[in-house]
Give the backbone structure.
Amino acid sequence: MADKIRVLLNEEEVNARISEVAAQISRDYAGKNVHLICILKGGVFFTCELAKRLTIPVTLDFMSVSSYGSGTVSSGIVRIIKDLDEPLEGREVIIVEDIIDSGRTLAYLIEVLKQRNPAGIRLCTLLDKPERRVKKQVKVDYTCFSIPDEFVVGYGLDYDQKYRNLPYIGVIEQ
Ligand code: IMP
Ligand code: MG
């Protein structure tokens, strides 16, 4: 049976907000190049929309990580499934994520990537669930939307690998 999905943020709202964040990043990095690291798979839709709106020079790389855990809870033990293609030495890096929940995945990733000596490393997320944060040290530099503690799908986010392609953010109704 098809799941019923309630729209939390529609396509127009999401795209308008991504434009605002892209403008902010373009201002903050004026005169520099940014190296976007897309966290697969969830970050891919957001990364494309963000990159298209940046007015500064952009390069892209991709990383895939899996956090061991059952169901919808991440364990904090992170495994790199696909590493970056290029070194980060001297680059202005922005990690682009779909959602920050407990912050465990990002806490680990930031530590790993810092060791590769980038010039700077910032974090940009489409969604943040601040109520769920366990790793309080994870500082988010650019957030499109802070949302309540609900399980969301769409715009890259999945439920059992489904619904990533929805052009909006929705909540599966029980
Ligand atoms: P964290 O390590 O707990 O911050 O987990 C972040 C990851 O959990 C995200 O990159 C998503 O893959 C997944 N996740 C967390 N909340 C949701 C949600 O509401 N919908 C879909 N995936 C989620
Ligand atoms: Mg993810």
User: Anything to note?
Assistant: Helices lie at 11-28, 44-53, 104-114. The radius of gyration is 16 Å. The first strand starts at residue 4 and ends at 9. The domain at 34-150 is CATH 3.40.50.2020 (Rossmann fold).
